[in-house]
Amino acid sequence: MAGLSSLLTIHLTSSDSFVTRKESAVLSTTLAESEESLKAKANEPKRRVLFYAAGSGIPEVKTILSGFVIHGYLGGRTLFTKAVGLTLSVAAGLSLGKEGPFVHIASCIGNIVSRFFSKYETNEAKRREILSAASAAGVAVAFGAPIGGVLFSLEEVSYFFPAKTMWRSFFCAMVAAITLRFLDPFGSGKLVLFQVTYDKDWHAYELIPFLFLGVFGGVFGAYFSKLNYRWSRHVRNGTWIKTHPVIEVLLVTLVSSIFCFVNPYTRMGGTELVYNLFAECRPGSANTHSGLCVIDPSSQAIPVIRAIFVALLVKAGLTCITFGIKLPAGIFIPTLGVGACAGRILGILVQWWQYTHPTSPLFAACKGDLNCVVPGLYAMVGAAATLSGVTRTTVSLAVIMFELTDTLTYAVPVMLSVLVAKTVADALEPKGIYDLVIELAQLPYLDAKRDYVWGSHEINDVTDRDADAIRMENLNTVKSLRDQLFSLVHSGNGDSGFPLLREDNYGQRMVGYIGANELEHALSIVADDADEGVSFHATKPYTHGGAMSSSLSSLAAETGSVMNYDALDFSPYMDKAPLIVSSNSPLESVHQFFTKLGARYVVVVDGDGYYEGVIDKKHWLAFLNELEEEKKSS
Amino acid sequence: MAGLSSLLTIHLTSSDSFVTRKESAVLSTTLAESEESLKAKANEPKRRVLFYAAGSGIPEVKTILSGFVIHGYLGGRTLFTKAVGLTLSVAAGLSLGKEGPFVHIASCIGNIVSRFFSKYETNEAKRREILSAASAAGVAVAFGAPIGGVLFSLEEVSYFFPAKTMWRSFFCAMVAAITLRFLDPFGSGKLVLFQVTYDKDWHAYELIPFLFLGVFGGVFGAYFSKLNYRWSRHVRNGTWIKTHPVIEVLLVTLVSSIFCFVNPYTRMGGTELVYNLFAECRPGSANTHSGLCVIDPSSQAIPVIRAIFVALLVKAGLTCITFGIKLPAGIFIPTLGVGACAGRILGILVQWWQYTHPTSPLFAACKGDLNCVVPGLYAMVGAAATLSGVTRTTVSLAVIMFELTDTLTYAVPVMLSVLVAKTVADALEPKGIYDLVIELAQLPYLDAKRDYVWGSHEINDVTDRDADAIRMENLNTVKSLRDQLFSLVHSGNGDSGFPLLREDNYGQRMVGYIGANELEHALSIVADDADEGVSFHATKPYTHGGAMSSSLSSLAAETGSVMNYDALDFSPYMDKAPLIVSSNSPLESVHQFFTKLGARYVVVVDGDGYYEGVIDKKHWLAFLNELEEEKKSS
Question: Which residues contact B10 (CB under 8 A, 6 or more apart)?
Fold first, then answer.
């Protein structure tokens, strides 16, 4: 009876949300498509459609924090769609989590709030600090893990993380945690999601199974990421599904609800499953944690292991096809579930072994106690390892695990398995799941953490010599500049700009640089005087507190007020001192200019200081991708 | 009887170590003096003496990680002196801790081990990664806090901390923690030093006293640092004590042993005191934790509070005069002790209040339970706040506190007080104690975390136009270069170098830069051919895998083998592409070149690409100090 009623409930819930699911999916697709004007105004042939509210959001927030602008991604409409869609998709019982979307939602709120303060509104760098702090708060509320949140923001999400941002994020996460505690949504009066109650210490021999769990986590993480990438690339984007995301969502929901009936563990929600797998079986207690407790291994072990193993396969398969569909969907909880299944299986096996060989010297530390092995601990270690294999975070993940389970007793096992998993996964597949999503979505993300082998490449191979420039010796009218800008934008380089050059005895000297956006703004002010000449007086040296026109502007100090006396003098909009690099410099310096200083473009000069060309971030990324390809093909 | 014997024991221990103390002090001073050749070979007028084994070591390790070289600071002799001296000085019962010296000891070991691997021996950047990881391990073993150690290394000690270093440090700290656990020096089978046993949750009203503790921690931290700085500057270095460090040590030991007799809490070791202050008083338990437990507040509270208050004053005073004497001495444990005293006092007061007003609405959450207030929790929060006020760390400190006490239940109170303390302390005194020690010892540390206000200064104000240069149009013989090098070293700039210039039509062009050390090495090979001409062919562009001659060398990728065919061709030793900055750039870019890219020098060129001068790190530091002074005086 009870079984039948639970089956019915599950069935009703899933078919109920079947309908609402569709709505939410439609909502996100239409919304995204209507906002498809991603980076330019003109209609161009191949324009990619980003579904803003879909997926985890962490890869996109990473890209935004690395210095790119995705218009509307952190706006109010996305916030609304994501929040509603997330509620519906979690309620549908799909194999997905809520933490990635929480980071995205927190970033949206941070972004919207920052619009009300001109200090943040006008300064991209300051705004990014807010987004870093918001990400920390997002993880803090998703897991009740304030410190883990700060570290996750530092390790995975943020690009620049100065010490100041660190303790601001810390403050933000703390306030989020206090608020969460007083709102008390779970009714437990605790922040902790998966509180574990056991306090038995671990034994030295257990490091060996923990090591195995680490290896499992690494292998699983690498192959899961690869499979998910291939599925997304070849099945989702390679077949008719590409144009029918809503049907895909319906199919996945159908498949999920069918597989739910396989056994009680697949039927549970992700959070509930992880909670039960982590739990300790107390001898004599009536709570068997949904039959996971094995009292007499010789008879009970095999069916329980079989059930958990089936749950593992179903969870892994469903997560693989679910992550990436056009729904708000995180990866943490499903991954934790898979890892906890694997850990619990190993834990029961060790328990069984100890039960049959209680006198083995291996178990000497147990002193004959048959309740010495805690399978819940293995589940916890396995979950940490798997998550580390998938996301490739280390310290932040370990801290999140401690805060999730409210225990520090197992610091060493968790750390060990996390490190082993990361090492193994990195060896099998260098990119974590977020980086693969970035690659898949072709987001312009410059990875500061990777080492590149420059080989025999030189700066001259990258320099863009033919970049359209504004020449001082010509008469630059508003109209001529507008034409130049138009052709630049039309060629798809609307986010770069023009070097300003003047003729010298033997070559060209660099006077400055003006970004396309700045030029557009300057031109819009004087749009009526099409034939007026425009001047770029760059005689005065840079004065602090003036207009932020440096190429470092996106990261450096505050802006002052622009005192623009002559609307036709464009010098307040130009970067009078772009970063210069000599053409015989190592490519590593250029890379560091982009990654560490956050430059958007670098001007290349020859040994005599003459202008040779520019390298902008887009070209640099393209060059790095070529480098990758070369390495792969060789 | 017991009291008398304990007094005798204490007296004996302190006078015993009195003698050994002297030895250790003598050892460190003589050793340091014999190694006084700090940075140059020539004897110069004012040479500062650094006592390598004295103090905490963290400021010096910070300086080394920021890119400066202190010869011998991380050598075997320092290691030995520090290890022996630390054992003796802790045994002497002085008011000092062991964690700072542990970081130094770990760094020494890391440095010595790295000498055996040529990959690390030849690459400063790799070696610094090892030192970062070693610092993490040092804190990990000092507190049994592996994750806190990694974060401390990240937040306080290290300068560059890429993601790769993060998980390597994590690995290092984990191995250290596992080793410590299996060696089990405390015989408890646990890593945890101050395990707390209470698991009562905190109540919302308690956030107010915690806030007060945060303010106390901040005020104490700021004034303690200031007082210690003034004591060091005016008393220690301003009177006859300066030349008699051994007598100072003897006097401090004498004063410490006299004040020890004041009451039982001052008599305890630092660790023991903190342990007892953190402990919970269980009603009915025979363990009164050295009389700290207040069963009946109306009669017991006042004498206990008075005793703890006296202990607080004595501890604070002794620590203030002890930190900085010529002994291996850390600051963590004494600070924790002071903070725990303050917290315990407040805790007993709140307990007393609740005892007298059990029905007050404030204590409604207690539901009339008279054991509702845990003074040990207040002690823990107070300790965290005080330490945060002194060292200005936030996240790492919170994590260290959790790992020290093995509980995460009080995450929010600890985080709140830590943040309040840091904010208050920063407002009163912008520099933490380590930065003050750096200032006192005049170590060349460039603080990447601070914001400078550049005002109306320009690059031209900083550029060193008169830097001695090597001119291409002259005949540079081995002898002439040796003379130039000699005069450079003699003027105290042995760690800078020469720009290489050639005459052009209207000015000078920069060809490259050669560091004094590289030049010296190159000259030493051809020292016999005094009149031979030396060439600097810099025609070929930079090739990767060649000599590390970039100004980024100290931080960038690996070195290749130097194929030096012609000993008189010095081009392998020169930096063919130093970082260039245009003279109208903002000063912020120069600052970022130094802090983010780790440059040692920057070449300034004018708008036409002609050489204007150089800025080396030393000049930049001097300029920043001037800026500080200006700000203070205005």
Answer: B93, B257, B260, B261, B267
